[in-house]
């Protein structure tokens, strides 16, 4: 796992980073600490993000939203993924501690990004770039996390 500072990312990762920021923060956004999503923003997520792999989890790490792009990237149908632990779906047992580290980092800073290896339903592994941000309710309380992930060409 590599949680990296923006100036440490290579050109391809920087392009993915900007695309993730545009999807999660608006067309002119760049990832920055404090990027927040409101739970109400999630209603039309598939229309907003197109074919990007977007996943929303609650505070316990359980999938509450699985986009069409996530179906394509991870090979789990939405019905198979929702209400299951994200860590169990896309991390090998050996890598599940990474999932917990990311969630802990999100709780502290509000955003997280990095490259690491993930798994598909068929157990094939791929290098992914992931950008995540907090989801808040109308009172500003964190209720979950939203992430966008891309396969990185190796």
Beta-strand content: 25-35%
Largest sheet: 7 strands, mixed
Average pLDDT figure: 76
Distance from N terminus to C terminus (CA atoms, Å) equals 16 Å
- CATH 2nd-level architecture: 2-Layer Sandwich
* CATH class designation: Alpha Beta
From the alpha carbons, calculate the radius of gyration and give it in angstroms: 14 Å
How many extended strands? 7
CATH homologous superfamily label: PAS domain
Could you please say which CATH topology applies here? Beta-Lactamase
Question: Can you count the helices?
Answer: 6
Provide the low-confidence segments as ranges: 1-9, 26-33
Helix content: 25-40%
Give the SSE string. Answer: EHEHEEHHHHEEE
Secondary structural class: alpha+beta
Shape: globular
Number of domains: 1
Task: Characterise the protein shown here.
The protein has 154 residues and is of the alpha+beta class. Helix content is 32%, strand content 30%. Strands 1, 2, 3, 4, 5, 6 and 7 form a seven-stranded mixed beta sheet that branches. The chain contains six helices and seven strands. It has one domain: Beta-Lactamase, CATH 3.30.450. The N terminus is likely disordered.
